[in-house]
Design goal:
The chain is α/β, with parallel strands linked by helices. It is built from five helices and eight strands; from the N terminus they run E-H-E-E-E-H-E-E-E-E-H-H-H. The strands form two sheets. A five-stranded mixed β-sheet has the order 2-1-5-8-7, with helices on both faces. Strands 3-4-6 form a three-stranded mixed β-sheet. The two termini are about 20 Å apart.
């Protein structure tokens, strides 16, 4: 039997990680297992004061268990790619691995009081987005779809925690409710 894994780094928010697991299990109709990921501190870039998302993604892919169909990593570290200021996550298109950063999903990052409900809502959306990439989905023009591109937190807040009908139709039929 194959499983979808959600791997968390040591500093990852446990409640957000559980919420991501539940969301992926419900959406993709497959059992989800937990995975403890090693530290991503080796990916830290002191000039940017952020963590290299490509290196984190490589680590997640290396840690992918043999019985995994996909693995989504969760970290609280702030991620970047060289051409962008930051990313909320990164995934291998049609691959086995993706990663979601909780750092910029927190209200506190923007100088606002903590709001656990907002954090969990954002975490669900971004986990679906990165998992969608691993299942071959590309960015969607439908702003309400979980696969719509999010370059800012407002775009995450506007989109839904589900795939639109077009993206749903592109997923394996036995993987969605």
């Amino acid at each position: 039997m194959k499983y979808l894994y959600v791997g968390a780094t040591e500093e990852a928010d446990p409640e957000a990680t559980r919420t991501i697991q539940e969301c992926l299990e419900t959406t993709f109709r497959m059992p989800v297992r937990s995975l403890k990921l090693p530290s991503v501190d080796f990916t830290y870039d002191p000039q940017r004061k952020q963590y290299a998302s490509a290196a984190v993604l490589e680590l997640v892919a290396r840690e992918c268990p043999p019985d995994a169909i996909k693995v989504i990593g969760v970290t609280s570290r702030d991620l970047f790619i060289p051409v962008l200021t930051f990313v909320f996550g990164l995934a291998q298109l049609s691959g086995r691995a993706g990663v979601v950063s909780i750092a910029r999903l927190r209200q506190e990052f923007y100088g606002l009081p903590p709001n656990p409900e907002v954090l969990l809502s954002r975490a669900r959306k971004e986990a679906l987005h990165e998992a969608g990439h691993t299942f071959g989905l590309v960015h969607c023009a439908n702003a309400a779809c979980a696969m719509s591109l999010s370059t800012g937190i407002q775009q995450i807040d506007r989109k839904g925690a589900a795939f639109c009908p077009v993206c749903t139709a592109r997923l394996p039929k036995d993987r969605l409710i």
